[in-house]
Amino acid sequence: MDGANSSVVSEFVFLGLSNKWGVQLLLFLFSSVFYMASLMGNLLIVCSVTADSKLHSPMYFLLANLSFLDLGVCSVAAPKMIYDLFRKHKAISFGGCITQIFFIHAIGGTEMVLLTAMAFDRYVAICKPLHYLTIMRPQICILILAVAWILGVIHSVAQLAFVVDLPFCGPNILDSFYCDLPQLIRLACTETDKLEFMVTANSGLISVISFFVLIISYIFILVTVRRHSAGGISKALSTLSAHVTVVVLFFGPLIFFYTWPFPSSHLDKFLAIFDAILTPFLNPVIYTFRNKEMKAAMRKLWYQLLSYKKVS
Question: Are strands 91-93 and 11-14 parallel, antiparallel or unpaired?
Fold first, then answer.
């Protein structure tokens, strides 16, 4: 059965973030600045890693792909949110809503796997440095990336399989600025309590398990380093602190969305903005702030671009 054809509802209407002109203007400026900064920062990392042969290592390969995913994260919901801020009728088609949900979960699932791979990369680099290039060889890195995308797409398709054939006959109002499964399921013209629990528990369980696996892996790395070298603990902490910060920023909002039993639309919207715009901006800042090689590569690329413009 075709979900779009079996539904009376052909579009969904967002309530958005605010109807007050002053708040809308502030949100427009805030969102636009951080959206452009997210695009530029992550694109700069991808280009720097690609252009600089010194960064052709497993760690930077994974980091560049994380930035590529963050380009997707900040482009799924933020542009339409910014476009809709001053519109009275904030609508999205049924197909557009399903597409938005697909990319949110596909990119999110892929990023979960990639963050886990980055934790494994740091474990090998810190705990087994002599075998690092053997274990994290290029073929393995490409395989990890392929598996991450496959699992992300499978997760997204599995989630949408529960929703795409649901009948939607009204109402069609979403108290949000983007489409996501929990709110969409509640609008279906059928009994959805079990389905809603199944979908949210699926994403919530995956988020919680992935988060704790990552945190435990970082603790294991620190314990291993402390056993072998007391002086290496400070270096390991410095290396892992950026990873832990990114993991908390990524999983924090997800765990709240899918496990918190008392939904609050205002807090949900705040965390959604944080997740859609601020997190993709903070990731490149966190990973490059104390990384001398990455900063040097970025400066080199920037000077090359300036030189190219002067010549042309």
Answer: antiparallel
Residue 174 pairs in a beta bridge with: 14
Contact present, 277 and 31 (Cβ < 8 Å): yes
What span, in angstroms and rounded, lies between the C-alpha atoms of 181 and 245? 27
* 3 state DSSP class of 268: helix
Residue 173 main-chain phi, psi, to 5 deg: -100, 125
DSSP, collapsed to helix, strand or coil, labels residue 13 as strand
pLDDT in tens, 234-274: 767 777 788 888 888 888 888 877 776 555 567 778 888 88
- Rounded to whole angstroms, the Cα distance separating 5 from 37 reads 40
What does 91-148 look like in DSSP terms, one character per residue? Answer: EEEHHHHHHHHHHHHHHHHHHHHHHHHHHHHHHHHHH-GGGHHHHT-HHHHHHHHHHH
Side-chain-facing half-sphere of 295: CA atoms under 13 Å? 8
Stated as kind and residue range, the H or E segment containing 12 is strand 11-14
DSSP codes of every residue in 166-229: ----S--EESSSS--HHHHHHTSSS--HHHHHHHHHHHHHHHHHHHHHHHHHHHHHHHHHHHH-
Instruction: Please name every residue paired with 11 in a beta bridge, in sequence order, or none if there are none.
Output: 93
Report residue 174: phi and psi, to 5°.
-115, 120
Of the candidates 103, 126, 304, 124, the one whose C-alpha atom is nearest the C-alpha of residue 228 is 126
Which residues have a Cβ under 8 Å from the Cβ of 196 and sit 6 or more positions away?
182, 185, 186
- Which residues are 92's β-sheet partners? 12
Helix, strand and coil in the chain, % to nearest 5: 80, 5, 20
Give the chain's largest Cα–Cα span. Answer: 66
pLDDT tens digits along 125-162: 888 888 999 999 999 999 999 999 999 999 999 888 87
